[in-house]
Amino acid sequence: MREAVIVEAVRTPVGKRNGGLAGVHAADLSAVVLNALVERTAIDPAIVDDVVWGCVGQVGDQSANIGRYAVLAAGWPETVPGSTVNRACGSSQQALDFAVFAVMSGQQDVVVAGGVEVMSRVPLGAARAGGVPFGPKALARYDGFSFNQGISAELIATKWGLTRTRLDEYAARSHERAAAAQDGGAFAAQIVPVATGETLVSADEGIRRGTSVESLAGLKPSFQDDGVIHAGNSSQISDGAAALLVTTPEKAHSLGLAPIVRFHSGAVTGSDPVLMLTGPIPATEKVLRRAGVALADVGVFEVNEAFASVPMAWLAETGADPTLVNPLGGAIALGHPLGASGAVLMTRMIHHMRDRGIRYGLQTMCEGGGTANATLVELVS
């Protein structure tokens, strides 16, 4: 089977809700990163076999196969197709898997994977439109549990004995790391500025400098009156897009491109849909077992910070070095534009790997309904 490599990865800044990117249509925001790939690689977009695009809120601005309209908005040839994937928060990580599988199988040679979400324009949960997507049989199977992620985050905190103080300490550290990364220029090479009228959005907007346990103490619990999960230790509602160019080493060479990482192994798993957000734990075990790589050999982990209890439970179960987990901050500080987040995390991780000479990076993402993706990539020296 052929190898698949990522030769370029770009993202927009992650905009906060009703922030600098709120006025940009999802197709147009997607076009920004698609064209950035072309500019950075000098490829002819006509050679792209497919664009696989993640998006969760597929309604309104983001309906009718936003992946296809992203291609058209970018001005790419009409012959370039596009499709849209929804695996909840892991949508664009799954889009990357699909792109890789197509290349490894030999069916396609050059595929773009990525995703978009403009939550300022398509609010969280808008696609449900008052319906009950779970259905009576699924609800009955789990005793009428509402499949509410916030309640699941609370259940995780209880199961792993995570106090509000510990969760808030984690949240404050996320902001601290993100601020240090931004100030140190860690994001400069991966971010594509977005022009909105006379304004140029060039930096992630969600970082709250000086966040502390004390400053978070006044926030009320969001899901239970006596709960520990609140807005400050949860991921932010955000806007953003990201894209990655996937091909073979041979095709990359013929195009004059240098691979950044090779796709080593991928895994997806289901887990308890009531706890819902613990899937990254078995997904990590599964991908490392498949890869034949030890946890101790991995130099950086991206574990999506949907809620602080998610990476903290993952850390407790895996025993990973916490200094290697989300070293540049995570979704608590940098935001979580749902369908784009998998591609955003991968972009952030592989640039960090290249900057620091890290051989292995592992990304994992909890997802609504109790599924999770895990992806292991290896630096190409």
Automatic annotation (TrEMBL):
Domain Thiolase C-terminal: from-to ranges: 259-378
Keywords: Acyltransferase, Transferase
Pfam families in alphabetical order: Thiolase_C (PF02803), Thiolase_N (PF00108)
Thiolase N-terminal domain: residues covered: 5-248
Alphabetized InterPro entries for the sequence: Thiolase, Thiolase-like, Thiolase_C, Thiolase_CS, Thiolase_N
Domain of life: Bacteria
UniProt family annotation: Belongs to the thiolase-like superfamily. Thiolase family.
UniProt-recorded name of the protein: Thiolase family protein
Species of the source: Yinghuangia aomiensis
